[in-house]
Known about the structure:
Layout: H1 2-18, E1 27-28, E2 39-41, E3 50-55, H2 73-82, E4 87-88, E5 109-112, E6 121-124, H3 140-151, E7 156-159, H4 170-175, E8 181-185, H5 192-200, E9 206-209, E10 225-231, H6 236-245, E11 248-253, E12 262-268, E13 271-280, E14 282-287, E15 291-296, E16 300-306, E17 313-319, E18 323-327, E19 330-333, E20 343-344, H7 346-371
Parallel strand pairs: 3-4, 7-8, 8-9
Antiparallel strand pairs: 1-20, 2-19, 3-10, 5-6, 6-7, 10-11, 11-18, 12-13, 13-16, 14-15, 14-17, 17-18, 17-19
Helix pairs in contact: 1-7
Amino acid sequence: MLFSIVGKLVLFLLVIVLLPYLFTPIYDFPDPIPFSGNQFYNPYKNINGDWIKSNFAVNGKAWNGFTNGVNTKEEIYDRYTELGYQLVGYGDYQKITEKVESQELFIPVYEHGYNILKSHHLVIGAYDVNWIDFPMIQSIHQMQFMNNILKDDCEVLAIAHPMLLGAYSKEDITKLTNYDCLEVFDNFRSSEELWDVALTAGKKVWVMANDDTHDINSEEGAGNYWNMILSDDGSPKSILNSMKEGLHYAASGKNGIVDNQPKRISVVNNRLEVELTEDAEAIIFISDSSHVKKIVHEKTNIAFYDIRPEDTYVRVEVHNKNSRMYFNPVFRYDGELVEQYATMNWPASIAYWGLYLMFYVPFVYLVFTRVFGVRLIGKVSQPKKSNGVQPAGTYSKP
């Protein structure tokens, strides 16, 4: 009896789980187009304003403990405020956490996704929670579909922990479009290689780092990974605009200690020069396919790299005594930013929908008729005649 009930429940859930796959479009993805041109896009050409220390992913108590968060929003806010964060984003699963009463700077954010391979997004500046997802394995087309619909629901969209459970492959990152940031660093994994894969393919993807913790007091708790975002007035609008333009950087360390800052990042005559407020332990210049081009080991606050013709982008990593900084890339362009977008292939999409319906409709019919005994198409009963004599109850009154 129990097996029968469990089996029926599993089949019913399978009907629900498979339904979203019916609506997936098929996309044509642009071929990788590496950055090119004689000019350089430098997101840090104007460093004016204040750096806002920010976190966008920490899971607190939500959904009656189902998501394993142990801290209240008040505890989370207090802890991050103690560590000098000006912007605390909570990032619960499928839930925009309301701000704490004393919280002045607030940007709504949530972590989207309930699929088995953890293909998740951070939806920043979210207007509402989107409940569409593909719970089972996702193809590149489902991933692109999620990027598109979530990007319409927010100001900044980030792919979260792409290396977790192998949710995103190098091929996926090479092809996917229409998102702003990649969560390259968090408490549990580094996706630096995937970031370089995207950049090498000519994708304008900015860096992001978050604790992504479920317990702020654990070793993998608060203050290990954060973002520094430049803002001219400290408003949510200014912060979000900076994130769209790459005017931020990621950092790692302990207890959120910031022991260095960029003072100037410039490109003049193909020379990329970095000037910091304090001496660094090492300054590293990295280009296409994660190739380390130059390492400055001596303690200094100024370093440079002469960009070579084969370099389509260069990014800088700075090692300090108590922290590391990961800057967004300087990349080649012709003076106008060109975005890459996947386009919908209508003939292929229609063919896919038709084939999927050929499988899905019979499956639903079988489940509801044979398993649940539900008659989906009722028969119209007609009075029967026997040897030309009308059945009782059909005679007209005399």
